[in-house]
Design a protein that fits this description.
The chain is of the alpha/beta class. The chain is about 50% helix and about 15% strand. It has four domains: about 140 residues, NusB-like (N-utilizing Substance Protein B Homolog, Chain A, Orthogonal Bundle), CATH 1.10.940; about 40 residues, no CATH class; about 55 residues, Sun protein, domain 3 (Alpha-Beta Plaits, 2-Layer Sandwich); about 210 residues, Vaccinia Virus protein VP39 (Rossmann fold, 3-Layer(aba) Sandwich). It comes from Jeotgalibaca ciconiae.
């Protein structure tokens, strides 16, 4: 009997969530990759997948808030094993934020998990903390007098990052931005042939997939319900899953059918494939896609085959900083640098990012980003374009990189966003995302997408 119970608890959603949360904390695992691996391994049903996703993302997203709730009930948290802390966070998250799960079910599973992973003493501690929490209630973070700490706890973002965002964007914008991270991200699609967008949208509805048009991407759809990967349009490469912000990058290349294109930082290949969709093999149009990891090159090639554009993409296992050893000066009509970055624009989709990013990390990334730009700029032909993009919100990785580059490379100039896609400037983007300098800056709270930065430059001599 006890053996049956043990096996059952080990494969329960809450046990799996505890294991995953601990791996994210102690091993630096990525929530999205880990979740996909566990779902495949455990062969969970749709209800369990939904709950596991909610628990892992919810607890990770609100970790600092949950620690604040638990603080009065744990004397020496630094002496507790990490999995015990994560089990308590998991249980408190369910009590506070999930209405449909009764407390007795939460307590029972927490105690059983504690017995399985630890011993009776830990099980008693977990039970005691949760009973006290239920009886006493939790402290309200909105009553914290210090405004920075209040926002840090409420949004579950480290204080140094809160201070940085307040400095960069002002308190009102920082607060709106950070609190918006608690909302789940949309699932967004890019339609491979934009001319068929409405036709595909209607056809998807017949397959049980309800969508709406993206508010920022002319080639994007948002999924309201339905399983996209089961769709015939997904399987045959007519649509692909891609965030709406990143869908804009390829558009700013203003690609022609015969263009020679370099994608200097290509993996996992979503933008590369979008670039290739504008090209024609018969006219000589080709994207040269670079990455430094063999498995990522394979991923680009797999995605290209599914989307039926592999005949327009050449992959290279090559560091972008050494691109001049493989390619000639002025070889390309358009060069894209979707630079490695801190990923602060992805905090809604990958919530663990906000706990691991450091000031020192941003500084070292600046050097890498600038070195890539300077290495590839000579490969752009006169009159060609250099498109720089990141999925971060840090000015140091965005505006400061571009400004330094333009100062030291006067042979490039900024093409303002609205005129970069259409010379007459009549294809307007929402005013919220176009900066005074002509860059694209998208915040997660603007339209519920990933945060993103894009700058289009032209080589003038």
């Amino acid at each position: 009997m006890s053996k049956k119970k043990t096996n059952k608890i080990v494969h329960s959603v809450r046990y799996l969530a505890t294991e995953m949360l601990d791996a994210i904390d102690t091993e630096g695992a990525y929530s999205n990759i880990l979740l996909n691996a566990i779902i495949e391994k455990e062969q969970l049903n749709s209800a369990d997948i939904g709950l596991l996703t909610e628990l892992v993302y919810g607890v990770t997203q609100r970790k600092l808030t949950l620690d604040y709730f638990l603080q009065p009930f744990i004397r020496k948290p630094q002496k507790m094993q990490s999995w015990v802390i994560n089990l308590l966070r998991l249980s408190v998250y369910q009590i506070v934020y999930l209405d449909k799960i009764p407390d007795h079910a939460i307590f029972y599973d927490a105690v059983e998990i504690a017995k399985q992973k630890g011993h009776t003493g830990i099980a008693k501690l977990v039970n005691g903390v949760l009973r006290n929490f239920q009886r006493t209630g939790w402290q309200d973070w909105e009553e914290i007098p210090d405004q920075t700490k209040k926002l840090s706890i409420g949004a579950s973002v480290p204080e140094w990052l809160v201070k940085k965002f307040i400095k960069d964007f002002g308190h009102a914008k920082a607060e709106k931005l950070l609190l918006s991270l608690q909302h789940a991200p949309y699932l967004s699609l890019r339609v491979q042939n934009p001319e068929k967008l409405d036709e595909i949208r209607e056809a998807l509805e017949k397959e049980g997939i309800e969508t709406e048009r993206s508010p920022i991407s002319p080639v994007g759809l948002r999924v309201k319900s339905g399983k996209v990967t089961h769709s015939s349009f997904f399987k045959k490469g007519a649509i692909t899953i891609q965030d709406e912000s990143s869908q804009l990058v390829a558009l700013f290349g203003k690609l022609e059918k015969a263009d020679a294109v370099l994608d200097a930082c290509a993996a996992p290949g979503g933008k590369t494939i979008h670039m290739a969709s504008f090209l024609d093999e018969g006219s000589g149009g080709t994207v040269h896609a670079l990455d430094i990891h063999e498995h990522k090159i394979q991923l680009i090639e797999e995605n290209a085959r599914r989307m039926n554009v592999s005949n327009r993409i050449n992959t290279h296992l090559l560091d972008a900083k050494q691109a001049d050893t493989q390619f000639s000066k002025e070889q390309f009509d358009v060069v894209f640098v979707d630079a490695p970055c801190s990923g602060l624009g992805l905090m809604r989709r990958k919530p663990e990012i906000k706990y691991v990013v450091t000031k020192q990390g941003i500084t070292s990334l600046q050097e890498e980003q600038y070195n890539i730009l300077t290495a590839v700029e000579q490969l752009v032909r006169k009159g060609g374009r250099l498109v720089y993009s990141t999925c971060t919100l840090a000015r140091e990785e965005n505006q400061e990189i571009v400004e330094k580059f333009l100062t030291e490379h006067p042979n490039h100039r900024v093409l303002p966003a609205n005129s970069a896609v259409n010379e007459n400037g009549d294809e307007k983007f929402p005013s919220e995302i176009v900066t005074s300098e002509g860059y694209i800056q998208i915040f997660p709270d603007d339209f519920g997408t990933d945060g993103f930065f894009i700058c289009v430059m032209e080589r003038v001599e």
